[in-house]
Amino acid sequence: MPFRQPAASPMTDTVTVFGQKMPISLESTLLAMAERMKFPGYGDNAFGEGLSLKRDEDMYLRMVANIAFGEKADGSEKVPAASAEEIELFLKARRHLPASVFDSERWRKVIGTELWPHAVYVMNRGGRFQEYQKAYKDGQLANKYGKMIGIYFENLVKTKHSMTGKTYHPHGDYIPSPADCTGKLIEDAKQGFDLTLITYKTITQTKSRTSGGYWLQAVYPENFIEVAAADAKRMGLQSGDPVKVVSVTNPDGVWDLGNGMIKPMVGKVRVKEGLRPGVIAFSLGHGHWANGAGDCVIDGVTIPGDRRRATGVHANAAMRLDPVLKNTGLVDTVGGSAVFYQSQVKLVKA
User: Fold this and answer.
1) Ordered domains of the chain (ranges, CATH)
2) Tens digits of residue pLDDT in 27-45
3) Is the pTM of this model over 0.70?
């Protein structure tokens, strides 16, 4: 018997696509476009006779079934079938979802009766995992990479560094850092900028695209300047203290927005034991001033900003400018990408 207890509907609107009710999402939007424009490969018989593509799970569940079945055509690599008790657990764990999200009979029909318990086995575990004892054979990894690993790169040794005229290292090597684009060491630490600034992405925020996800903001409404416990003790800082991030090339610790306005790079301290002393960090996704965080005037009409989108801090502007290039940050001279882990900064109590 399918479980029904619609008590936790999605926060997004419900729409109807191909005659099916579903939460609005990227997938439902693409399906709606396909229905409206009559794209082939969608709707009835999309995957063959009687196999439709009208909902996102019509594709995703079949992908799970493929994982459960394994790579060999004879089915010898199928995962074990979930027991009746485990299947009941799977259904009960989703009994709060409305039919527009989860319908056990619909899911079973998509996967097929034979593979259904095997697919449930995979979904209950969040994937398919190899037994540890099978990971090695005769003292070596059983799952070999099987592709070439480049240790010596001829193209690098034949290429000259545009700033120095020297050839690049064709092999792995230790290169002292932080350094400018000519390889000259930058020694900001001697001027008191003795903290290395790094960034990372937390699971609930990324960059600009999630600042308007208010259900995500509820989980993690602001970010912090994360400081190692040893450094916090040395500097007399406690969690919650407001600090400004400054550097040699941004001694004021501000974003110059270019419109006569500035935004200080001030955030609250969060003391952590799990951070290497001498390193401070902040997660990306907070500290906005645009993207709905501030007022915007369009055709004379002011669109008010939402302060929830402006919480926290974004400290990229404190990152060191290259003293040779002058108008850009430190760079990886081989790949050309920005280097986000070599800037030396210090914290000033705000």
Assistant:
1) 14-125 (no CATH), 179-349 (2.40.40.20)
2) 999 999 999 999 999 999 9
3) no
